[in-house]
């Protein structure tokens, strides 16, 4: 019996020692965790807790929406009605549930924060104080809302044409507005400056010694983006981006939806449907570029200058479109403080919003009034600079043109045929005046 009692006592002592060791180990672990993850001094700052009552969205923006819609539009780039429509569109993707600890940030507040950031380029710290939302929370909100905007708008407002009828409508609008028939868009590309990505080396380092991603776009006659390629690293120029993008493959290998060549007004010769670009691209049967300076001499000088002028009228669409997005979404005026993937999401959201505002009749009038755009006076031959040129910033840079383009004989002849058409049955009364050649 004594032996049993002794074994029992030894076992109890062993358990007690283990309990003490476990308790000591637990205390040490808790202390280490406290050092590594110190407790917040407060769970939520008092000024943030007053967000619903005093935050910018529920005070200033609410007042402007009812008292001064014009000022509201300047703040968020759209009318109160369009804002609410957009909030309802993204609600299923960004709405959060309330908890017993705190109320969630509403969809409207999330959209206000994002639109204000895109419209002004304000830092997240500045938005933190305006909207009374934590800075790290704002960072997540902007990325999430930009992705949601692209998701809900791309199918309608950034949709790639897929049928004969859609391409023909684009070409008709281009012909009726800019007198360049069988043209299905103006193409251009820009560097979008970003902060140097971590451990990226020289991948995004461009020819201007800056870090960037590339936006290549095709714009229709209504200044809407109908095709975009965003995210290529900044080391590549116009031609390199074009050679790797899906649009080039579509035009050259899978162009079944592009209408077949057809005669231009007043002509019996068939001309293909083409995109216009600048000298940085390679001339082809689908891409028309201007004659270079060395080709503007000799007996064909006038015909080729007229061609360049007529092509420049269409290219003004892409110039105005890029100018508008920089003027209206000022986050593009300087380098984005985002990694390449986030910068791509922000850019796609901006392009969708631009197309939305250019499609809506009232939005178009307020978003891009005539004085904001480059325009020409056909009577005097003067080209008036658009208001967007006054405040461009340096966030969008032209792509580096890669010299030494060698063009095939067939597209060279096609371009000469266009030049002959513009100097013959396709001439417009003011074109000689615009290139300063006496009639």
From TrEMBL:
Start and end residues of each DDE Tnp4 domain: 187-355
Lineage: superkingdom: Eukaryota
Annotated GO CC locations: nucleus
Entry cofactors: a divalent metal cation
Family of this protein: Belongs to the HARBI1 family.
Record bears the keyword Transport: no
Protein name (database record): Uncharacterized protein LOC113217429
Record's keyword terms, sorted: Hydrolase, Metal-binding, Nuclease, Nucleus
PANTHER family according to UniProt: NUCLEASE HARBI1-LIKE PROTEIN (PTHR22930:SF269), PTHR22930
Single GO molecular function: hydrolase activity
Lineage of the organism: Eukaryota, Metazoa, Ecdysozoa, Arthropoda, Hexapoda
Domain (DUF8040): residue spans on this chain: 62-150
Organism, scientific name: Frankliniella occidentalis
Entry annotated with the keyword ATP-binding: no
Compartments it resides in: Nucleus
One Pfam family linked to the record: DUF8040
